[in-house]
Amino acid sequence: MSEAESPSVLAATHEVINQVPPLAGHNLYAGDTALREAVQHNGGHWAEDDLQRYGEVCGRPEMIERGYNANEFKPIFESHDRSGNRIDLVRYHPSYHQLMQLALSEGLHSAPWTDPGPGAHVVRAAKYYLHSQLEAGHGCPITMTFASVPSIRLNPQLADEWLPKITARGYDSSNRPYTEKSALTIGMGMTEKQGGSDVRANTSTATPMGDGTYELVGHKWFMSAPMCDAFLMLAQAPGGLSCFLVPRWRPDGSKNPLQVQRLKKKAGNVSNASSEVEMRGALGWLIGEEGRGVNAIIEMVATTRFDCMIGSSSGQRQAVVQAIYHASQRSTFGNILIDQPLMQNVLADLQLEVEGSVAMTMRIARALDHLDREHEQMLMRLGTAVGKYWICKRTPHHAYEAMECLGGNGIIENFITARLYRDAPINAIWEGSGNIQALDVLRAIAKAPAVITHWFDELEQSKGTDLRYDRALVRLKNEFSNRDEIEYRARHLVDQLALTMQAHLLVQGGNSAVAEAFIASRLNTVGAHNTGCLPTGVDVTTLIERGNPLAV
Ligand SMILES: Cc1cc2nc3c(=O)[nH]c(=O)nc-3n(C[C@H](O)[C@H](O)[C@H](O)COP(=O)(O)OP(=O)(O)OC[C@H]3O[C@@H](n4cnc5c(N)ncnc54)[C@H](O)[C@@H]3O)c2cc1C
């Protein structure tokens, strides 16, 4: 055999060039100018060192690997053990547990409850935003645990027993009674087959047992993270729809008959198990009053909606990180992508979206830190609905455009962009889908007109800085003074509430290039257009630099 025909020579078909190595080992916080500025601006400056530390943790290669593993090795459900005993066990890849452990040890589920004060929500939001860039699915039980606290407080006896363990900075994934654990997680079951948005259509029943407990019979069509230690659930009690805390195990150590039927096969959010369950006489404790279940659980829902804002902003950020990083290394037609004008327009537009999302999320975090002030309370009431609607709804298309920046690689599963895309619609759909948020905005205004007055008061702060902004404000006020077919127009109204608020916050944020680009492209244009249609004159260099994860 001649040398030219030897197998090793034949196998060497080509040299791999112009492929971009994975991004790892960078500091997610240090490389995020928009986030750092928003944290400073909204009262989180005291946590700068901690955020720098956590930004480094979240950029470590082994952490990134855990995000991939938790999605590649999907949760598996086992109804019974090998002897036939009912166990309702979900098995996860160890990486999922490691991510849970990290999130809980950092207090992402509890810090503002255990250590409240100025900036507490802002800092927790910033950390969660960094953390979620590793993996979004396990955030579901983190968020639900966090959000359960205000609802559980409505029952002081339960609060005394459960909250110290719910807010503890630990993780115990073992399948055993809550009484034996020092750290607990909480889920929720509202959605039933016949209705998710319209929870008043719930048919599950709760019968008082005469000893202060209730017995729940019925089903839940979506109950995510079924390994949580207890769930806030709605069921029809004699006094009407009521809220209950339903543990997986009874206080006597026996299994509560809350039986998982199967896990959903979801298109995204696959690291997070979402189950269908039946309550076959499950023990539950009343939260709040009978017949006021929606009021009790709404405390939880408001917080989960806020976390949807954090989660989707975080997804947008990670998408931009990947798009800009890729474009800074990949050549086409003899030039680096990031230097090519049309790609610059796309990248800058993607970053501009993140700027608006971060500004709004952090502003609402600040409102949460100051709920003793009426203005902040009103801003929070409308802001969670407007922000959840807008940011979550913008994310799927944003994820797709970022994915396209990577070309074909973008949709391949060992590039995170594919996962970001699959996960992107989840936050928009759960916890009140788009229309429900838009209608909630109208409901909030009808119930307490002060919410819109305070919203406009906030927007007035930037009046006079830009004529295009002032005009948008006038248009918005006119739209609200017209009550004709207001439900039909609700999405359009909420779009405008979101855009003007983001513009205002970016004006206040103090970077004139960002504010100018936002107003020029979001407030001053008519009709539909795609990402990457920023008008000429926009300072794309500044925007791309702000989005570049390696530009510190
Ligand atoms: C990944 C994932 C995890 C989930 N986890 C949980 C969980 O842990 N616990 C839980 O309880 N639920 C969970 N859900 C369920 C979720 O909250 C519901 O799917 C959601 O609230 C919508 O309810 P539905 O599916 O019944 O749709 P429907 O209520 O039937 O709504 C269908 C569509 O109609 C729209 N709509 C409804 N009413 C109106 C109206 N009056 N006017 C105009 N449009 C309207 C909605 O916006 C929606 O787009 C989860 C969902 C997903 C995707």
From TrEMBL:
SUPFAM superfamilies: Acyl-CoA dehydrogenase C-terminal domain-like, Acyl-CoA dehydrogenase NM domain-like. Residues 18-173 form the Adaptive response protein AidB N-terminal domain. Residues 188-280 form the Acyl-CoA oxidase/dehydrogenase middle domain. Residues 291-445 form the Acyl-CoA dehydrogenase/oxidase C-terminal domain. Keywords: FAD, Flavoprotein, Oxidoreductase. PROSITE patterns: ACYL_COA_DH_2. It comes from the Bacteria. Pfam families: Acyl-CoA_dh_1, Acyl-CoA_dh_M, AidB_N. InterPro entries: Acyl-CoA_dehydrogenase-like, Acyl-CoA_DH_CS, Acyl-CoA_Oxase/DH_mid-dom, AcylCo_DH-like_C, AcylCo_DH/oxidase_C, AcylCoA_DH/oxidase_NM_dom_sf, AidB_N. Belongs to the acyl-CoA dehydrogenase family. This is Putative acyl-CoA dehydrogenase.
